[in-house]
């Protein structure tokens, strides 16, 4: 993700016809500006200057989440409306457009949200909305067991899938969380009511909406957190939080870290190494046996996962940590967790590639590894929802490439058109049937032709897939996986 560059005071944009001005739009009377500044409270909305990815100035609407005074200088913590929370930041009054300030509605003396005390004041135009949409695709969803036949047409292949007429997709419920990043094409947007990440939303107050850690030093990297993480409060005032990159214990200072490193003999995550190829290794960690490491991993991960609600109850989970090896040890790249027992076929609870390793193919490698485990277990799997915006992009790309690889690899036998069903695709890939269907719909492959539902692979889709696969250099080699699944239902309290 491109880094957002904070504007330098005095480098504001110019409106047509203006000779020049400071960052903030001018207020007629400077005294009035100071007066307005004093009236800015939590819940106010107004345009705030920021730089976009093209390094251009823009004035998106933002909400004031907190105000603090440092040496007589006021700072305002803002959330840009309709932007991801990772862009939230502290700004000075020069970046605020005070002419367009909207004050929060004063409906109740004690602000609440969903009946829970301690939430932010009501904002203008803020309503709790719940939309229910029934999405009917151009063609009904294909049957899971009807075979698909293949025949060429104008250099492209058409794969026909018979389907049940009149079958509709399930309705999608859009959640009330304004920061939900999930899409509505076959992937539920609302937070689930079952599974490992269920929350009563009592955590969603003004405190947890704000980043509380300034910077994290992890090995040779310094990371700037995106979201709140429940580290001990006394650590949140530090300019840098120091973590041991092998056991993930946190310290207040570099001296504390150096003292810890003289005692810490770990050079890889605790647990069993179940995969190694080249410099890439995966370690399986039991959340009950290695509770301290698992909790520290969750605290670190929460800095970069908005929806994560699991912090301390790690007993029911397994953690699969991906590392890169060099002469100093096995350095953490990313991880995913999964429930030991899932009644809903979830093969991933949380998944994260740390920012220094993003956009290098590691996210897709983590996803591929999770499905390799599902293949060994003889199950189909799906990730828990809601997915983050980056997680959704990675999964959608993985599903698309994996399914297209299967379809393009079909060959005719004895002159007959090859056939395949949704169930067969699911069994080969271990991708849950619902995800297979939603991916086919997302790729817009399903069409109705001569009384049958067919999957049409155009030349553009084939060419795009081949280009994407050429760039996908990192793949999981199943021969390097040494994994024996356990039946956790027979192991008592795990």
Task: Give the topology, please.
Layout: H1 30-39, E1 45-47, E2 50-51, E3 57-58, E4 61-70, E5 73-80, E6 89-92, E7 112-113, E8 116-117, E9 131-133, E10 148-153, E11 156-161, E12 172-174, E13 216-218, E14 221-223, E15 241-243, E16 250-251, H2 254-261, E17 272-277, E18 280-286, H3 291-302, E19 317-326, E20 329-339, E21 346-348, E22 350-353, H4 362-377, E23 382-383, H5 389-408, E24 419-420, H6 422-429, H7 433-442, E25 446-449, E26 452-457, H8 459-471
Parallel strand pairs: 13-15, 21-23
Antiparallel strand pairs: 1-4, 2-3, 4-5, 5-6, 7-8, 9-12, 10-11, 10-24, 11-26, 13-14, 15-16, 17-18, 18-19, 19-20, 20-22, 25-26
Helix pairs in contact: 4-5, 5-7, 5-8
* Shape verdict: globular
Report, as a whole number of angstroms, the end-to-end distance. 39 Å
Strand content: 15-25%
Largest sheet features? 5 strands, antiparallel
Structural class: alpha+beta
Q: Oligomeric state of the chains?
A: single chain
Poorly predicted tracts of residues: 1-24, 117-139, 149-194, 198-203
Count of DSSP-assigned helices = 8
The overall pLDDT average reads: 78
**Strand order in space, largest sheet:** 24-10-11-26-25
| Total beta strand runs | 26
Helix content: 10-25%
Radius of gyration: 26 Å
């Amino acid at each position: 993700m491109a880094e957002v560059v904070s504007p330098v005071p005095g480098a504001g944009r110019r409106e047509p016809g203006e000779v020049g001005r400071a960052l903030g739009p001018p207020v007629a009377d400077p005294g009035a500006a100071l007066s307005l500044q004093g009236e800015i409270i939590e819940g106010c909305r107004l345009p705030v200057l920021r730089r976009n990815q093209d390094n251009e100035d823009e004035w998106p609407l933002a909400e004031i989440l907190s105000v603090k005074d440092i040496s007589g200088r006021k700072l305002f913590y803002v959330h840009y409306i309709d932007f991801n929370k990772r862009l939230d930041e502290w700004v000075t009054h020069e970046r605020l457009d005070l002419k367009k300030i909207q004050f929060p509605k004063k409906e109740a003396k004690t602000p609440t949200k969903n009946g829970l005390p301690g939430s932010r004041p009501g904002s203008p135009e803020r309503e709790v909305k719940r939309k229910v949409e029934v999405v009917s695709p151009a063609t009904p969803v294909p049957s899971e067991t009807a075979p698909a036949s293949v025949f060429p047409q104008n250099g492209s292949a058409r794969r026909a899938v018979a389907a049940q007429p009149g079958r509709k997709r399930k309705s999608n419920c859009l959640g009330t969380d304004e920061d939900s990043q999930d899409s509505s094409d076959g992937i539920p947007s609302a937070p689930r009511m079952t599974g490992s990440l269920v929350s009563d939303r009592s955590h969603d107050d003004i405190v947890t909406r704000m980043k509380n850690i300034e910077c994290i030093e992890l090995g040779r990297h310094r990371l700037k957190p995106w979201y709140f993480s429940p580290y001990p409060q006394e650590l949140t005032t530090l300019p840098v939080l120091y973590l041991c990159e092998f056991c993930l214990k946190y310290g207040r200072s570099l001296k504390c870290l150096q003292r810890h490193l003289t005692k810490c003999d770990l050079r890889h995550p605790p647990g069993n190494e179940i995969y190694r190829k080249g410099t890439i290794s995966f370690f399986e960690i039991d959340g009950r046996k290695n509770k301290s490491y698992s909790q520290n991993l969750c605290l670190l991960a929460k800095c970069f996962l908005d929806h994560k609600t699991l912090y301390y109850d790690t007993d029911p989970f397994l953690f699969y940590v991906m590392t890169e090896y060099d002469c100093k040890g096995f350095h953490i790249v990313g991880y995913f967790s999964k429930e030991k027992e899932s009644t809903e076929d979830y093969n991933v609870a949380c998944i994260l590639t740390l920012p220094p390793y993003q956009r290098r193919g590691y996210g897709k490698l983590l996803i591929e590894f999770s499905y390799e485990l599902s293949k060994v277990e003889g199950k189909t799997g799906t990730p828990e929802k809601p997915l983050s915006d980056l997680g959704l992009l990675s999964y959608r790309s993985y599903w698309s490439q994996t399914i297209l690889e299967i379809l393009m690899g079909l060959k005719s036998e004895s002159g007959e058109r090859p056939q395949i069903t949704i169930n067969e695709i699911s069994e080969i890939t271990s991708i849950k049937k619902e995800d297979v269907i939603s991916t086919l719909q997302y790729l817009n492959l399903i069409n109705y032709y001569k009384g049958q539902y067919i999957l049409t692979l155009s030349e553009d889709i084939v060419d795009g897939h081949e280009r994407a696969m050429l760039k996908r250099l990192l793949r999981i080699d199943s021969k390097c996986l040494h994994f024996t699944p356990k039946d956790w239902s027979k192991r008592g309290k795990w």
